[in-house]
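Input set for joint prediction.
Command: fold jointly, output tokens.
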Amino acid sequence: MHELGVVMEVIKVVEQTMRENNLTQVDTIVLQIGELSSMIPHYVKDCYPACVDGTSLEKTKLEIEVLSANAMCKQCNKVYPVVINKGVCPHCSSDAKELLGGREFFIKEIVAC
Amino acid sequence: MHEFKVLEIKKSIFASNEEQADQLRIKLKENHQFLLNLMSSPGSGKTTTLKRTIAALQDDFTIGVMEADIDSDVDAQTISKTGAKVIQLHTGGMCHLDAEMTAQGLEGLEGDDLDLIILENVGNLVCPAEFDTGSVKNAMILSVPEGDDKPLKYPLMFTICDVLLINKIDVLPYFDFDLALCMERAKALNPKIKVFPISSKTGEGMDEWVAWLRNETNTWNA
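tokens >
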């Protein structure tokens, strides 16, 4: 369950942002999670209530946007989505690629006052 | 009724770990301390390898060990008998260490006098590979009974490691483990990886590994 530590870090960053911007209430936290980030959105959602329990974010909602993983084929230079193609270029069948994204784990924004 | 507004943060949580890891490396460099992150699956012989490594290097360096486990202090007790300074880190269910936990562990170790600190990460070939601990070098152990296909199954771990120790080579005759093929698979993922076949039980191959660690520690701490 390695989502737990990462979600705790999210809580820390949000609380710090609240202090820096004199915010008192956070309605929603929006995360962006890359398909290849090793973070499973489902597990992030599962451990979130435990992480905010007893904090000022107890009533804050969590939204997750999944970012797709794209790669550029080193053989034919075309860009393709990695996961549905199982890491193999659908144009030329090469598996040599440069990952352009998909390993991210961002706090995109918070809705707060 | 409060007015809610949207605040863009766009902060990468992984980046914040990488920042903390970089800061830790800067601090280690200033203090002339070398931190090795040692990773492997459970039962690969990490603690036994560590005991032999400490025995071989304790005349050269003052050594400290951070034992990360989900719970228990079995390994810490074993290592404390070697004379090295040791601290047990409990991750409380977490499957890996991050840079902040490593920094906290270093503080708890109270080891300003230490030249070489070895972090025995949680036994796991998946998650520890994802998180930079702030170590100077990463090493991993793969043991013969685990199979030579492990580079294919856990590619990231083999990609991020500077050293691969293939342990338990004393039992090679009893397993279908192709040493050359395993090395080839690891090098395909990471051409720079140094591979040392060892037996932490008999001591075979340990000299080369210890020489590497001695050299890296001296270079970093110089």
